[in-house]
């Protein structure tokens, strides 16, 4: 008989809940340390990459190649004076950063790093824990984290902070719905909401290939969920000074900073788990090397995919400008949600027809024809609307008419209209009369 030990089977839901207390504590500590180190390294990579994109150096003083710059920034924030403005709701003001940062750590506990391995003689999955509805836990934690941002804006008693909090609430509602809809197709194909089961269902083919529209919708919504450029409206410096954290300093501001970068890692890890096969090796490597998905090697594939998405976030920040708020809402409510609903209906129909034994070739052809017809009708509708709105009537061409706004343009008040100049002149005459008569 062969003396080579058999590889441990892929983990399932029944693999959890059997670890001793010291192993569970070790996993929690490992996840915490991993997230903190990922935040420090993400800050360094972001500054170096954007520095190269903008033809400048980036951090190069604290440590070799500036590697300790994130640690230096953390120490600086911890030692700065903690300023609490007058008039704020102190209890909510202090709790808001905690509410924002804590769920970011919890959400990462259901992310699988690898298969079942042996740790000090115990067979255990490389994952904190798993649940039958594990993916919904991530959505729940994202919603709770949004409370921290909204409460921070309200408790600061500042108009800039309040506007930032309100923007964040509207943005998260808009994009979290579309994000949840993008998960439905994954659940239909995997047959489970467990992250372990979803990774096991991608043993042959990644869902990013099978469910490409869901993958693209999630990539867009995770940018809106992370409150980063081009969707960083809640902290838009040009309009809101700093947004919801304008009045925060020292460790409280650092916790918001920490939550943002942990959410960056969580969203990237969730995308890797749901659409890129999780810890499984890419097709060429897994085909050539049978042991690529065994032992500790899958951790390497998982980290490579994770950092690929983090680099994608950084690249977008250095490439795209901030969008307008009306464009942000239009993208979420008028484009992403209808497309998500239509795609889910199509996927559910195909799955039902497949279960009934219909020919999938004909189903694919009819589905492609239906999608092409819908796209063609939408293009024709847009062209007809533009032609209808582009004509100028005789009344519009008269003197004193308000100029028509172009389709999709930002509404600008017609300050150059003669009517407004007349109103202004009348106001000036009234003001001069009041000054002359001595009235106030």
TrEMBL record:
It is found in: Cell membrane; Membrane. GO terms for molecular function: NADH dehydrogenase activity; oxidoreductase activity, acting on NAD(P)H, quinone or similar compound as acceptor; quinone binding. InterPro entries: NADH_UbQ_OxRdtase_su1/FPO, NADH_UbQ_OxRdtase_su1_CS. GO terms for cellular component: plasma membrane. Belongs to the complex I subunit 1 family. The keyword Transmembrane helix applies. It comes from the Bacteria. NDH-1 is composed of 14 different subunits. Subunits NuoA, H, J, K, L, M, N constitute the membrane sector of the complex. GO terms for biological process: aerobic respiration. Its EC number is 7.1.1.-. It is a multi-pass membrane protein. This is NADH-quinone oxidoreductase subunit H. The lineage of its organism: Bacteria, Bacillati, Actinomycetota, Actinomycetes, Streptosporangiales. Keywords: Cell membrane, Membrane, NAD, Quinone, Translocase, Transmembrane, Transmembrane helix, Ubiquinone. It comes from Thermomonospora cellulosilytica. It catalyses: a quinone + NADH + 5 H(+)(in) = a quinol + NAD(+) + 4 H(+)(out). NCBIfam families: PRK06076.1-2, PRK06076.1-4. The chain crosses the membrane at residues 20-45, 91-113, 133-156, 177-199, 205-224, 253-276, 296-315, 335-353, 365-384. Residues 391-419 are annotated as: Disordered. NDH-1 shuttles electrons from NADH, via FMN and iron-sulfur (Fe-S) centers, to quinones in the respiratory chain. The immediate electron acceptor for the enzyme in this species is believed to be ubiquinone. Couples the redox reaction to proton translocation (for every two electrons transferred, four hydrogen ions are translocated across the cytoplasmic membrane), and thus conserves the redox energy in a proton gradient. This subunit may bind ubiquinone.
